[in-house]
Amino acid sequence: MAEKEKFLMKKTLILIASLVVLAAASLTAFFIVKDKQEKIAEEESSKLADYALFSFDSNSIKKVSIETEGSEYIAEIDESSEWNMTSTDDFEANSQYFQNVCTYLSDLTAEKDYGEADDEKKALYGLENPIKITASDGTKDYTIYIGAPSPTGDVYYVMTGDKSKIYAIDTLYGSVLKTSRTMMKDPMMLPFGDREIANIQLIRDGKTAYDLNYDSESGLWKLPDEYSKLTTDVTKITSMINIMTRIEAQNFFEENLEDLSKYGFDKPTAELIVTGLNGVTRKYLFSLYGNETDTYIHVYFEETGQVATYFTGDCNFINYGYDRFISPMICNISLNGITGLDFTFEGRNDSFEVDTETDTVKMNGKPLSEFAANTTNSFSVFYSSLSALEISGLDIENTPELSDPILKAVFHFADEPDKTVELVERDDSSCYVFIDGTYTGAYIENEKFNGKNTLDFFYDSFITDVEG
Q1: What is the per-residue pLDDT for 41?
Q2: Confidence of residue 18 (pLDDT cuts 50, 70, 90)
Q3: Within its chain, how far is the Cα of 307 from the centroid?
Q4: Whose CA, among 53, 64, 314, 358, lies 20 to 30 Å from 244?
Q5: CA distances to 38, 187, 247 from 198, in Å
Q6: pLDDT tens digits, residue range 146-157?
C-alpha cells in the first residue's frame, strides 16, 4: 500500500509540474503576443501621425502662393473674406477656389506612402517639377508639392515641405490642388455683386439698346428721361442683374487677344458696359461664333483680353431693349383710387364721379343706379378694360404732335394732380401714347382697344345699358 501511495504522489507531482510549465509557457506567449500587438498599434499610430500631412484652421490662412507653369501666383484674403490676386492684374481671383485650397489642405491625410524620396522616385511620380502650393497664416507656412496622378487615376502623388517621403492622396483632393492658371481665374463674368452696380449699358448694332442707372438716393433703377412718363418695372431689372452677377464661364480660351476677328469680336453681336458703385468699369464684347451658338456664346473681356464661353441662354440680356424694363400698363389705376373720370371716345364725351365711401358712381351728374339694373356692373367691366390697356412697343425716335386724339381719359384724384392719357393716330394699325400732354415714346396697336372683348366692345356694352 505504501508503494502505491508513493506512485500516486509522484504522478501528482509530475502533473503539477507539467501544469506549471504549461502556465509559464502560456504566460510567456501572452506577453509575446501582447508586445507584438502593442508594437503594431504603435506602428499604426505612428503611421497615422505620419499620414496626417497637415492640421490647421483653414480660416487662419491669409495668403496662398502657387508656383505652376513657370510662374508664381499670389492671392491674399481681404477684410470681406474675398480672395484677390496680388501678383497680377491679368485676371480676378476665383475666391471659391482659393478657399477650397485652404480647406482641403487643412486636414489633408495621405492614403499611402512610397518611402523616402530620391531623384529617381521624384521622376517616377511626377515630382521632379511639381506644382508648389504654400498657404500662410502670417506665422507659419504649409507647403505641398503636387505630382502626377496614378495610372488608375485614384490618387495623386505628393510631398510636403516638412517631410521627405512621397505620399498618395485621394484624387478628389489632388484634382483641386493640381491647379492651373485657368482654375485660379474667377469664372464669374462680372466682378460685382448684385447690389454693387451703378450703371448697365448695352449696345447693339451700334446703337444703345438700353442704359440703366441706379439712383442711390431712392434705391431704384431708372431709365433715361425720355421714358419718364412710362413706369419702370424695377423687378425685371433686378432679376436680370441677379442672373448677370451669377453667370459662370464654361471655358477659358486665350488671353491678350489682339486679332478681334478671330472670334468675330470685330463685328460683335452686342457690347456690354457695366460700372460699379466703386467707379470701376468693365466692358465686354459678345460674339455668336462657331458651330454651337445655340449652346455657347463667346465673350471678350476688354480689360484683360481674355476670351471665354458662356451658356447662350444665360446671356439673353444682350437681346433686350427698353421695352423689357417698362411696365406695359398705360393706366393701371384702380377704380377705388379715383374720384372721377372724363372719357372721350367714339364721338362721346362722358364724365363720371366716383364716391368710394358710398360705393356709388355718377355719369354726367346722374347716379348709375337710376339707369338699367346692369349698368353699374357693365361700368366696372368697361373701367377694368380701360385700366388694363397695354403698350405694344416703343418708338422713341419719333416726336409726334398731340392733336385729334382718338381716345382721351382724364383721371381725377383726391390728393394728386389729374392724370391724362391720350391716344393719337400713328398709322392705320396703331396709336402713339401721350400722358399728361407728353409723348411717352410708346405706341399701342389698335386691336388692343378696338374690337371684340376690348375697351371698344365693353364701352359700347355699357352705353347700351345706359341708354336702355
Answers
A1: 47
A2: low
A3: 20
A4: 64
A5: 68, 22, 18
A6: 999 999 999 999
